[in-house]
UniProtKB/TrEMBL annotation, chains A, B:
Pfam families: Glyco_hydro_20, Glycohydro_20b2. Hydrolyzes the non-reducing end N-acetyl-D-hexosamine and/or sulfated N-acetyl-D-hexosamine of glycoconjugates, such as the oligosaccharide moieties from proteins and neutral glycolipids, or from certain mucopolysaccharides. The isozyme S is as active as the isozyme A on the anionic bis-sulfated glycans, the chondroitin-6-sulfate trisaccharide (C6S-3), and the dermatan sulfate pentasaccharide, and the sulfated glycosphingolipid SM2. The isozyme B does not hydrolyze each of these substrates, however hydrolyzes efficiently neutral oligosaccharide. This is Beta-hexosaminidase. It comes from Oryzias sinensis (Chinese medaka). Keywords: Disulfide bond, Glycoprotein, Glycosidase, Hydrolase, Lipid metabolism, Lysosome, Signal, Zymogen. Coiled coil: none annotated. It is found in: Lysosome. There are 3 beta-hexosaminidase isozymes: isozyme A (hexosaminidase A) is a heterodimer composed of one subunit alpha and one subunit beta (chain A and B); isozyme B (hexosaminidase B) is a homodimer of two beta subunits (two chains A and B); isozyme S (hexosaminidase S) is a homodimer of two alpha subunits. The composition of the dimer (isozyme A versus isozyme S) has a significant effect on the substrate specificity of the alpha subunit active site. Residues 144-253, 265-444 form the Glycoside hydrolase family 20 catalytic domain. One of its GO terms (molecular function) is beta-N-acetylhexosaminidase activity. GO terms for biological process: carbohydrate metabolic process; ganglioside catabolic process; glycosaminoglycan metabolic process. Its main location: other. Residues 95-122 form the Beta-hexosaminidase eukaryotic type N-terminal domain.
Amino acid sequence: FRLALRRPPRDRPTPHHRDPGCLWPLPHALTSSVEQYPLNPQTFAFDYGKHSATQQGCSLLDAAFRRYFSLIFPDYTIMKTASKIYCSVGFPDNLSVSAGQASLNAATVWGILRGLETFSQLVYQDDLGSYFVNETFIEDFPRFQFRGVLLDTSRHYLPVHAILKTLDAMSYSKFNVFHWHIVDDPSFPYQSRSFPELSKKGAFHPATHVYTQSDVRRVISYARMRGIRVLPEFDSPGHTGSWGKGQSDLLTPCYKGGAPSGTFEVTSVFPDSYIHLGGDEVDFSCWRSNPHVRAFMQKMGFGGDFPKLEAFYIENIVNITSANNKTSIVWQDVFDYHERVGRSALSVVEVWKHGCYLCKVRQVTKAGLRVILASPWYLDLPGPTHNWARYYTVWPLAFPGSEKQKRLVIGGEVCMWGEYVDATNLFPKLWPRASAAAERLWSDEKQTSSVEKAFPRLEDFRCKLLRRGIQAGPLNVGHCKHEYQGV
Amino acid sequence: FRLALRRPPRDRPTPHHRDPGCLWPLPHALTSSVEQYPLNPQTFAFDYGKHSATQQGCSLLDAAFRRYFSLIFPDYTIMKTASKIYCSVGFPDNLSVSAGQASLNAATVWGILRGLETFSQLVYQDDLGSYFVNETFIEDFPRFQFRGVLLDTSRHYLPVHAILKTLDAMSYSKFNVFHWHIVDDPSFPYQSRSFPELSKKGAFHPATHVYTQSDVRRVISYARMRGIRVLPEFDSPGHTGSWGKGQSDLLTPCYKGGAPSGTFEVTSVFPDSYIHLGGDEVDFSCWRSNPHVRAFMQKMGFGGDFPKLEAFYIENIVNITSANNKTSIVWQDVFDYHERVGRSALSVVEVWKHGCYLCKVRQVTKAGLRVILASPWYLDLPGPTHNWARYYTVWPLAFPGSEKQKRLVIGGEVCMWGEYVDATNLFPKLWPRASAAAERLWSDEKQTSSVEKAFPRLEDFRCKLLRRGIQAGPLNVGHCKHEYQGV
C-alpha cells in the first residue's frame, strides 16, 4: 500500500495556502511537516492494500473511493490510475503520507470511511489550482462511540433530499448516528406497511408529505454507505397526537394491558440494533380523566400513581423491543418515573433536560445505565446562529464519578427540533454549529479545549463544507474562496 | 380592457382552497365575493387596454406580463391569447375582476407592476390543479413612498444571483428601494472605473469577490424592471477601512479641504436621484491622533471640536452631491453632529439607533427634514427567525407632532447587516420577516394592527414565496403544499 507522491522541485515557490494540518474534528495524534507533495488528479486513485481484509467488490468502500475522489477533486472525473493511495482493512488505524508513500489503515471498513474524510481534508489547492498534500502521520479514533444528530420530521416535513444531504454533512464531521424523530403530535409522515391509515390521515399530506418504505430504505442505505446508523424514534405514549387520526383505537393501548403492535414492523424496517422509544413529556391529565384508565389502575394495584402506569407501559414496550433483539433508548423522563418502580428493563437513557444536566448524567451512570447526552446541544433553540462556542465548551465527563461511570457515557447528540425549522433554514442552523459538538464527541478534550485555537480551523472547515455544497452559515465577517452558490 | 372569465357550472363543488382574499401586503380597499371564475392557462394573457398610455413595446410591462404569467401558472408556458386581462396606464389605480371581466388600471407603469403582483396573489388552485380567481375589486396605493431593504455586501460578499433573487422577493412584498451598502471596512467589492485599485486591493478577492461595472448595471436594470430603485451607499468618513488598501492617500481627504473625487463616478454609475452618504459611527480618535488633521482644524477655527470637522466634511460631500443633482441621505449621526453647525445642507435623515427612535423621528421632522425609519427593522440582530410580529407591530407615526411633520416621514427600511449573514442564511433570515415590515409600510395601519389576524395571511404568503423559489423560513409548526426543494 504505497503511493509515489512526487516531491515538488526545489525552486518552486511555496504556494499560499491555509494551514495544511487543518482538520475537523482534530485527530488524536497528528504530526505533519512543511514538506509538500503535489497530487495529480489525472493519475490519482484510491485502491485496496495487498493485505487488506476487504478488496475490490466491497461496495461500501468502492463507492467511498469514488465519492472522496470527487470531494477532493471537484472539477475532475477519474481518468487513469497511475498513482494510488492504498487502503487496508484489518490493520491498526493510521494514515500516513510521507516520503513518496501514502497509506490508510483501519481495523474496519468504517475506520477507512473516517480516514478517507481525514485524508480529503488534508488535500489543499494553491492559487493556481494545483493540489497538494503535506507529509502527515495520523493515529485517530473516536472519543465517544455514539455521535448523533436528531432531525424532527413531524413538526415540519423534510424532503428526502434534505435528509440525504444532512447525512453527507454528518459524515464530514464524523457523526455516526442519525436519530430520526420521524413522527410526533403534528404529523405522522411514516407510511406504515401495517397501518397505512396512520400517514393517510396523520401526515400533513398523504402523498407529498410522507416517507414511503422505499424512502426509508433509501435513507438507511445512504446512511450506511457513509458509516451512519439510523436510529428510529416512535415516541410514545406522549407525543402521539397524529397517531389517533388514522387509528382511532390506538391512543389508549396502556389500559388494554398490551403494547402497540406496530413495534414488530419498526424492528424489521429499521435494521439498527438500537431503537428509540421516546417516553418524554407524558401529560397525565388525559389518563386521569379516563374512567377506563382509572379502573385498570385499580385492577393493577397502582392506585392513583400515574408514573407507575407510565412505567408499566414503557416496561412492556422495552420488553417487546428486547424480545426482538433490539436495545432500547429512552428519554430521561422514563428514568425519572422508574425511580420508584425499578429500572431493570432500561439500558440507555438520553439526558435532554436543561439545568444541571451533568447531575443527571451522574445519577443515571450511578444506576449502572448508559447515557447519551443531548441537553447542551439543542441547536434549534433561539440564539445567534454563529454561537458555536457554546456547543464547543461542553465537558460531558466533568462530573464526580468512577471510571466505570464515565465509561457509561456512550456519547452525545445534536438535536434539531422542528417547530421553527424546515428545509429552508435547516442547513445554516445546523452547520457548522453541529461540527462544534462533533469535535467534542470525537477529539481529545485537552487538545481541543481552546475556543480561540479552534476558531480559524472551524472557519476553514466551514469553507470546506461550502465547497461541498453544504449551506453552512457564516461565523463572522470574512469570506471563503468558494462561496455558496446555491441561491 | 376586459377579459371573458367563464363562470363555473352550478353543480361544481366548491373546491377546497385558502381564503381567496389572501393578499400580502393588504390593499387599502378590497371587496370580494365567493363567486369564482376559472382561469385557463392555455388561453390566458395580459394585454394593454385600448386607451392605455403605454402599449406593446413598453419593455418594462411586456417583460412583467411574461414574468407574472409564469408566476401565476408555474407549470405552463404562454400558448395562445384567447382571453385577456387588460392593463391600462394613465387611469386611477384599481383592479377589478367581476362578471366575466377583468381589468387593471394604474396612473403609472409602476402601479401596473404592483397590481400585477396583487392579481397574481388572487389566483389560486383547487386540489385538482385548476386555477381560479374570485370576484374582486381593489383600490390600492402605498402608505409610504420609501420602502427599502438594505443589503451589506462588504462584511460578506453576496453573489450577484443572491442580490437578484432578493430583488424578486422584494417585488413580491412591494418594496421599492434596494439600499446597497456596497462597501465598508472589511472589503471594497465595488470595481471602480476611476479607482480600480480600491477593489483590487480592498476586495476579499480581486476577481471572484467583486461587482464589476456590468454586474452593477445588471442589478440596476433587474431592479428597475421590478419597480425597485437602487440606492447606493458609499459610507464615509467612517467605515472606510477597506478604501485605504487600494488608495493610500484617500483616507484623509478632509484635511485637504476637498472631498473624494469618486463622488462623480458614483453619481453617473448609479442613476437614482438619491444617494446615501453614510456618515455613521465616525471614530474621532484617529483624527485626534493626526497632527495634520489638528493643524487643519486650527486653520479652520474648529479648535478641538471634531463633530465640527465631521460636519464640515459631510457638508462638502452633500454640496457636491447636490451639484450633481442628487439628493443626499445620511445616517442620523450626521443630524446629531449638525445640531451645533446648522443643518441647511441636509435633506433626508435615516434614523437607525435603538432606544426611543420615535423621539428622534420627532426631532428630525421638527427640524423640517425628511426621515427614513430603520431602527425597529434590524433583521440581522440575534433573535428567533420566526419573530415576525416584532417587526409588524411598529407604528412609525406614533409620535406627537404636526401633520406636516408626519408627512416628512417618507418611509422605512429593513436592514440586513452582514456580520453573520451571507448567501447561506440571507433568505430564511430576511423572508418572510421583511414582509411584515413591508405591510407596515404599504398598508393602512388600522386595518393591519392585529398580529392574530395577520398570521394566517402571512403563513399563506410564505407558502407563495416558497412556491416561487424564495427560501422563506417557517413561522411555526405546519406545512406548505409546495415545500422548498432547493436543497
